[in-house]
Design goal:
Elements: H1 8-19, H2 25-32, H3 36-48, E1 68-76, H4 81-92, E2 97-102, E3 109-115, H5 118-127, E4 135-142
Antiparallel strand pairs: 1-3, 1-4, 2-3
């Protein structure tokens, strides 16, 4: 999206939607000083341009039984496109994998996984992660506390 079309009103609208995507247009308009129609047009333009990709619900993972988060760093034995594609597909099939990044540096992947507890993580390793062909090395770290978590750099 071209920056000249992404002004302070668009940023203000996005901040409101990031806080609660169910906020009524009338409320958004009042908060940002624009008419309901103007807000709707801006939201539609940002959606059409791909800046707004979806509307979703934030879930407290602990409330639904996933008490722990594990960061797993993985190195693959091969870096062929076929190996990378197969590894990506395998991660897609594991519901506990929340995010996976192909990274530079000592490891190839940085993966964030939600688990119920250490036994659940052990099960996931044995039954799912270690069954993916091509993993040469992995390193796991349990998250002790989340200090900051945001989806965008927009501030309030």
């Amino acid at each position: 999206m071209d920056e000249k079309f992404f002004d302070r009103h668009d940023q203000a609208i996005l901040r409101i939607l990031l806080d609660d995507s169910r906020t009524p247009l009338q409320e958004i308009g009042k908060a940002v000083g624009l008419s309901t129609t103007s807000c709707w047009n801006r939201i539609k333009r940002m959606t059409d341009a791909g800046a707004i990709q979806s509307y979703t619900v934030k879930v407290d993972l602990a409330q639904i039984g996933y008490q722990d988060t594990v960061i797993v760093q993985v190195t693959l034995g091969s870096h062929s496109q076929e190996t990378l594609d197969e590894f990506g597909r395998a991660l897609e099939s594991i519901p506990e994998v929340l995010e996976a990044f192909l990274i530079s540096g000592d490891y190839d992947y940085f993966i964030r996984i939600a688990v119920k507890d250490t036994r659940d993580y052990e099960r996931l390793l044995r039954e799912k992660l270690y069954k993916i062909p091509g993993i040469r090395h992995s390193k796991s770290s349990f998250v002790l506390r989340t200090l900051k978590k945001k989806d965008t750099p927009l501030t309030g």
